[in-house]
Amino acid sequence: MEEIIYIYDLNQARYFIKQGLKICDIGIHTKTRNPYWVFDKTQSNFEQIFQQWLTQKQYVW
């Protein structure tokens, strides 16, 4: 089973893309009509990039 994450934040999706993560899919939520980007969490550098995003935003995970 694929481990995927849905990102609804455009800035976060852009950051992931600029850092080299590949998009698996793009869609629009049926109820909220908000766009989302789907990333595969098993990409080799996903955890590192995700931690960088959290640090940049001063989140603690």
Helix content bin: 25-40%
Number of strands: 3
Strand order of the largest sheet: 1-3-2
The separation of the N and C termini measures 24 Å
Strand content: 25-35%
Low-pLDDT stretches? none
Rg for CA atoms: 12 Å
Number of domains: 1
Q: What structural class results from the helix and strand content? A: alpha+beta
Determine the mean pLDDT: 92
Number of distinct helices: 2
Globally, the shape reads: globular
One letter per element, helices H and strands E, the order comes to: EHEEH
Structure notes:
- The chain has 61 residues and is α+β, with helices and mostly antiparallel strands.
- It has one domain (4-56).
- 33% of the residues lie in helices and 26% in strands.
- The chain contains two helices and three strands; from the N terminus they run E-H-E-E-H.
- The chain has helices spanning 10-18, 46-56; strands at residues 4-7, 23-28, 35-40.
- Strands 1-3-2 form a three-stranded antiparallel sheet, covered by helices on one side.
- It is globular, with a radius of gyration of 12 Å.
- The model has no long low-confidence stretch (mean pLDDT 92).
Question: What is the element layout, followed by pairings?
Answer:
Blueprint: E1 4-7, H1 10-18, E2 23-28, E3 35-40, H2 46-56
Antiparallel strand pairs: 1-3, 2-3
In short:
The chain is α+β, with helices and mostly antiparallel strands and 61 residues long. The chain has helices at residues 10-18, 46-56, and strands at 4-7, 23-28, 35-40. It has one domain (4-56).
